Amino acid sequence: MSLSRVVVESTKPKLPKKLKPARKQVKPGDVEKKETVQTGKEYNIWYNKWAGGDREDSYSNKVKSQTRCSIKRDVGLTRANKTGIKYCCLFFARGCCPYGWECEYLHMLPDESWALPDSSKDCFARDKFSDYRDDMGGVGSFTRQNRTLYIGRIKETGPGPETEEIVIRHFKEWGEMEKIRVLQYRSVAFVTYKSELSAQFAKEAMACQSLDNDEILNVRWATEDPNPTSKVEEKERLEEIGRAAIQERMDPKIVDAMRAVRALEDEELLEDEDQLDTEDVQPTEESGDERGAKRRRLEAPDESQKPSGLLSADTIEGLKYFAEIRQRQQGAASIVKRAPAPPQRSNGLALDYGSDDDDD
């Protein structure tokens, strides 16, 4: 049984109007690096691990994170606010940055309006790859804009709506959420953010964290939604973002000029059609079938023909038609001028007789 819900209300946390210098989340040496005891028969010096151990559930060997970021307490100004760096601090997201205001990266949530200097990097300045990892972990891929997180190993202690409220309460801290879906009795949830940057931040902030029942979450990138409706909506959303980005970069004067040219082209097309109507009334040398075919071609142009310049396809077709008419008229006039001269009549005595030699 699955429960899905579209989160309509704004879940983006409110930040203070005037930020203070970022505080140091931990002191050097506070975080102890703990690793689970590895079981195995042979030690692999290449991977620095024991081989041949228990591999039934590799994620159960994960250690719960010792720190967690708190947006209300930890957000503040750093050196990156003066240097203009647009990347967030990875250790700040995990709640263990010891530098505070001396950090070279931002200690704040990424804004969806940010334009990162390099689209092949995530919000933490880590390089993306062409393909996702087999377990859908890691940084991610630059071939797809993924805004959905897979959250596994949730301990359900109540009905589906209760689990849904718990997930929303813990994940709304990292950005504005678009929708959430909980698979009841499967301990799995899917959270979709409105911004890909928010999803990247939330993935690192909630990795190996717990909700209300002291579990260790498995946070990964979600695979592509096979629903055709979701694919169409995602395609339309990306196209709308692309159009908005192009309009922002275009000069408003150029846009107004192009609209004026388009209006002039439409007026010229109407005038050409009126002139064509008056010429159709007058008799011409063309047959009715030819005039009807050309008229239909002007009234119903091919939709596949798109304007490649300032003039539209209808205007270009009309100009070709009038040029053809003018060429035919000039051709007819040249034929009249070059009419063949009448044959010269010879004298009556100069008849066509044979010579004297023919008699011999």
UniProtKB/TrEMBL annotation:
Residue ranges constituting the RRM domain according to the UniProt record: 147-224
Region annotation Disordered: where it falls in the sequence: 1-34, 266-313, 330-360
Biased composition (Acidic residues): 266-288
Zinc finger (C3H1-type): 88-110
Biased composition (Basic residues): 14-26
SMART domains: RRM
Keywords attached to this entry: Cell cycle, Metal-binding, mRNA processing, mRNA splicing, Nucleus, RNA-binding, Spliceosome, Zinc, Zinc-finger
SUPFAM superfamilies, sorted: RNA-binding domain, RBD (SSF54928)
Entry-linked InterPro entries: Cwc2/Slt11, Cwc2_RRM, Nucleotide-bd_a/b_plait_sf, RBD_domain_sf, RRM_dom, Torus, Znf_CCCH
GO BP: any one term: mRNA processing
Molecular function via GO: pre-mRNA binding; U6 snRNA binding; zinc ion binding
Coiled-coil intervals: none
GO CC field: Prp19 complex; U2-type catalytic step 1 spliceosome; U2-type catalytic step 2 spliceosome
Domain C3H1-type, first and last residues per copy: 88-110
UniProt name for this protein: Pre-mRNA-splicing factor CWC2
Keyword Membrane annotated: no
Family statement: Belongs to the RRM CWC2 family.
Compartments where found: Nucleus
Matching Pfam families: RRM_1, Torus
